[in-house]
Structure formats: structure tokens, C-alpha cells
TrEMBL record:
Matching PROSITE patterns: EF_HAND_1, EF_HAND_2
Domain EF-hand residues, every copy: 312-347, 356-391
A Pfam family the protein falls into: EF-hand_5
Protein name per the record: Scn11a protein
Top-level division of the source organism's lineage: Eukaryota
Gene (name only): Scn11a
GO CC annotation: voltage-gated sodium channel complex
Keyword Transmembrane helix among record annotations: yes
Location in or out of the cell: Membrane
Alphabetical UniProt keywords: Calcium, Membrane, Transmembrane, Transmembrane helix
Amino acid sequence: MRGIMRGRISALLGSPAMKTQQSAKWGGIPDMLDPRMPTDSPIRFKLAVLSKSLTAEIILGLMIAFNVGLIIIEVDSGAVGVEREIPAWVEVANLIMLTTFSLELLFKCAVYQSKIFLDAFHLIDAFVVLLDLSIYAVEEFAGMEATSAFSAVRLLRIIRILRAVRLLRKSRELSMLMLSFLASLSAVFWGVIMVIVMVTLWAILAVQLIHPINYRIWVDRDCERCPHAFESVWQSALTLLQTVIAGDSWGNLALPILEAEPITLIYFAGVIVSVDLAMLNLILAVIVDSAQDARSVSDHERALQMEKDFNQATQQLYRLCRRLDLDNSGKIDPSEFVRGFEQDQDFADCLKGMGIGGRDLEWVLSILDKDDSGDISPDEFVDQLYKLRTHETHQILSTLTDVRKLLRELAVTQAGVIMHNTEMSNLRADSANDDEAKLRAFSSRDTASEVSCVDCIT
């Protein structure tokens, strides 16, 4: 009994390979139920799964990195004042890359067909490839020279590097870093605005307070910019950015002024405390806080996306189950499920994608039938099946529930056997007592007869 239960539980929980395959799906939803996948054709579906594999993504990422390297070589060769021709192998490699990406786009158009518009990355690929083809056609067939403006347009091909962002989804750490960086851009922008405001205020004071002292010190010395470092608000702002924020030439400009007029220490101390210590550290704290908020928002958005994908997959599986209800009774018995698994290829592929084979179907149906009615409605089947496959806790509880049911049945059977054995023991005891009583009665009659005979002889 324990071996049978262990085998059934192992079959229900799934093999390690199946768990690995399922965990690769986003939110535990199989590719068969992804609305962006071409489920109407088994061949195109398998090709789509192959194109989404980790190996294919890595190969495409390496090709994208190589293409960016080619763009870097082109930009360096076309820089102003650099007389350097683009190597011939770069042109050949660009043509090979363009041909490869064009064939990839045609492949995805043939595989996904109208569903290609449901994936934003596919649309980005199509835009970049078509733009690249247009640029190549204009250069080769229209005879247009690569002017600086036209070369800048060619740099749009670097947008293809956005495709490599898909690899970030394979690593949670890289994905969180990218999301945190994007979320902190707003804090960085407003922080820069605040720094500009603070530097402008101190620059206005510098023109009035620091410039006379600085000019008197540097007017007769051999320094081209030093006498003009604080002569205007713009020059003062540049000087403060250079000395306070960047930390460059602080000793060349500030120290001579402090030595000539120590009272200016109040000004420079105010600049350092307000801009360097207070404002910059405050911006850093806001950036960290924004990154933390982005992490929380990311988890929330991921949960919403998983719920959205789950609802879409549930609706599709519900439609597949409705096709099995041939008598339109709203209930599906186990025989209809088995027949649908054998005859409906879409339904069979869907269950196989969730790790449920033909041998496991009856066992799964017995678990999903919570009310023990023998029939399962499509709603009950879909709801319980997804809870069983996507929630490990619910899966374990369902298994334990069934184990408890079997143990109860075993306990009832054992109690019946004990009662039967007790009754048999009682019957044997009663039979033995009756035999003993009869034997005693027979012995008593024999004794009485013997006494009577002795009396007669006497």
C-alpha cells in the first residue's frame, strides 16, 4: 500500500525534468496556453517553442553584440578628420548579418503569422530590419553617398541591441538592476535640476564676493582662465562644478583665495556643505529609495501580468473542455475526458504540456472531483487543475486529502475485519461452551445411571 501511494504521489507531483520544464514557463503557464503562441498548428507551435529556447536567445544575443561591434567600427572609420576606409570584411559581415536577421524575420512571420503583432519585441525586430533594408537599398541602388546625416540614420540599427534585453529575463538580478535604473532616472533628473539651482545661487554670490579677490590674485600671473573663473554667473557655475562636484583643481583656485582672504572660508564651506554633502547625498538617497520602490512595483506588475496570463490560459483551457461536453449537459464524466485525451489533439497537447499523461489522467480526475459526484464541470476542472499544477501548497494539500481518504477507507476496512474476527471468536467460544455443557450433562446422566444400578443390586 505504501509503495502504491508513493508511486501515485510521485506521478502526481511530476518528475524533476517536468518540474524544470514547467518552471521555465513564466508563471507556470505552458506554451500551449500562451495567447501569443501559434497553437492552431503543431508544426508552427514546435518551431515557435524552438525559437524561444535559451540556446536560440543566446545565439541571437551574440549576433546582436557582433552587429554592435560592426557599427562601432563603421562609426570610428567615418569620424570627421579621420581618413580611414571601412574594411571590406566589415561590409561583408554587415551584409551577412542583414541577411540573417531578414531570414529570421521571415521565419517568425511564417511561424507566428497574425500573432506576431502581439509581441513588442517582434515589432521592434521588424522595424529595425525594414529600416536597415531601406538604408542598404538607398545606398546600393540609388547611389546616395553616406553623408553625415545619412550615416546618423544608419545608427538606428543599434536599436537592435534592445533585443538583447530579453536575455535579462533569464536573470532576476540583471532584470531588477535594469528596472531599478529606469525607475531612478526620474530622481536623477530632478536631482540634477536641484543641483543646477543650488549652483546658480552660489554662482551669483561668487560674482559679487569672490571675483574681486580672485581677479586681484591672478591678474598678473601666468594663468589664462584663473582671472576669469568667477567673472560671470556662467563662469562661476562652471568653476563650482569643476572644483566642488568634480573635485578638480580645488587647490589651484580655492586655496589661493582662502590664503588671501580667510573670511571666504564661509562661502566655500557653505558651497561644500549645501551642494557636495547635503544635495548630492540626498539625491543618492532618493535614487536608492526609487530603486526600492521599483522593486516593489516590479513584483506587483509581475503578479498582475501572471494573473493576466493565467486568466487568458484559463479561458483557452475552458474552451477546450467545452468541446468535450458532447451532450451539452454542463458536466463531463471521466470517460469523456479520456476520449477527449485520445481524440482531441489540442486538449491532449495542453495536458501533456502541464505534465499530465494518459496514465495520470484518471488519477488526476479522481483528485479534481472534490464532491465525489463522478462528473466534473469545465469550471471545476479548470480551476482545480490550475491550482493543482501552479500552487505547490495546494498540490500537497490535495495529495494529503486523497491520502487521508484512502487511510479512512483502510481504517474502515480494518475495523470491519476486526469486528468479523471478534464475531468469529465469539462464535467459537459459544460453540465450545455448548459442547462442554452437553458433555457435562451426558456425564451427569451416566453417573446417575450407575448409582441406580448399584442401588438395585444392593
